[in-house]
Design goal:
By secondary structure, the chain is α/β, with parallel strands linked by helices. It has 11 helices and 12 strands. The strands form 3 sheets. Strands 4-3-2-1-5-6-8-11 form an 8-stranded mixed beta sheet, sandwiched between helices. It has a two-stranded parallel ribbon with strand order 7-12. Strands 9-10 form a two-stranded parallel ribbon. The two termini are 38 Å apart.
């Protein structure tokens, strides 16, 4: 009988792609959803509502593995205090709810794999290459990721193997990061943001999904792993490649940092700053990236 993987955030960009990868690998898939959805021959849906602390416990009790992807988008709107709270709680409260079901039913999973983010290293630009041993930053992104991962540690306290996938910018066709920025480039109005020197730690959606799949069955994997390609991709480099792929050279001046700060407020740091991040640990665990060249990854991801 196929092992079952329960996904939170299964209807999102990563979740939809990951569902396909897991099914192809022979797993059965369940998805926690806030709305009523009809089961398909390949996917079973269960209801949950984090705000009211409701979850169909059968979803958790049936699962052999859980992958936690749920979370409000970081750059969907300005970081008001209300928005910051929503971003944090959308990541931690689902874990608290799942933890309660596991603990109350003495349920032991084969593994609990959670999304995290390279934002744990902070949002300043420096030459430092961050590894999984780099201390968390004290800014909003750093503290949010730290609390997110601390919530995952409660699952580990139940003697369940836990893996934290610290993800960078995810590149994939029609959705995610590129969906937001390609319209202006496609129209011929692409521009470099701020200084352009900020690093963009990225990963192709296919690599990310395969890393999640590996984390399920590789019993040696524990704790945090950076899921990004180690290279020197900056905003300027990515912007110039995107323009080139659409057949032109960037002609607009750089958009000054202060303009983005006026428009986006504190959230602008997620765009104007960025770290270099090492992928050495996941590679030592045996994962070989399919996409390591930013131009090839972008070309593959453009519709």
């Amino acid at each position: 009988m196929a092992k079952n993987v329960l996904l939170t955030g299964g209807s999102g960009f990563v979740g939809k792609h990951l569902t396909e990868v897991l099914i192809a690998a022979g797993f059965s898939v369940s998805v926690l959803s806030r709305s009523d959805r009809k089961n398909t021959p390949l996917v079973t849906y269960y209801k949950w509502d984090i705000k009211s602390d409701f979850i169909e416990e059968e979803a958790v009790l049936k699962a052999d593995y859980i992958i936690h992807l749920a979370g409000e988008g970081i750059v969907e709107s300005r970081w008001t205090e209300k928005r910051k709270k929503a971003i944090l709680e959308s990541r931690t409260k689902p874990i608290e709810l799942i933890y309660s079901v596991l603990r109350n039913n003495n349920k032991i999973l084969d593994a609990f794999v959670s999304s995290s983010a390279v934002g744990i290293y902070g949002a300043d630009t420096s030459q430092e290459i961050c590894t999984e041993e780099t201390p968390p930053a004290n800014d909003f992104l750093g503290t949010t990721c730290q609390k997110w991962e601390s919530a995952v540690d409660t699952i580990n306290s139940l003697r369940i193997r836990t893996v934290k996938i610290r993800t960078g910018i995810v590149l994939g066709r029609d959705e995610g990061f590129l969906k937001k920025i390609t319209p202006s480039f496609k129209a011929g109005f692409g521009a470099i943001l701020g200084s352009g020197k900020q690093y963009i730690p990225w990963i192709h959606i296919e690599d990310l999904c395969q890393i999640y799949a590996k984390a399920l069955t590789d019993f040696e994997m524990n704790g945090p792993y950076n899921a990004t390609v180690t290279n020197n991709t900056t905003n300027a480099k990515l912007s110039r490649i995107l323009a080139h792929l659409y057949g032109y050279k960037i002609w607009l001046p750089k958009i000054p940092a202060f303009v983005l700060q006026l428009i986006l407020g504190e959230m602008s740091i997620a765009i104007l700053e960025g770290k270099r991040v090492s992928s050495e640990k996941i590679q030592k665990a045996g994962y070989e990236f399919q996409f390591t060249d930013i131009e090839v990854a972008l070309s593959n991801s453009l519709s």
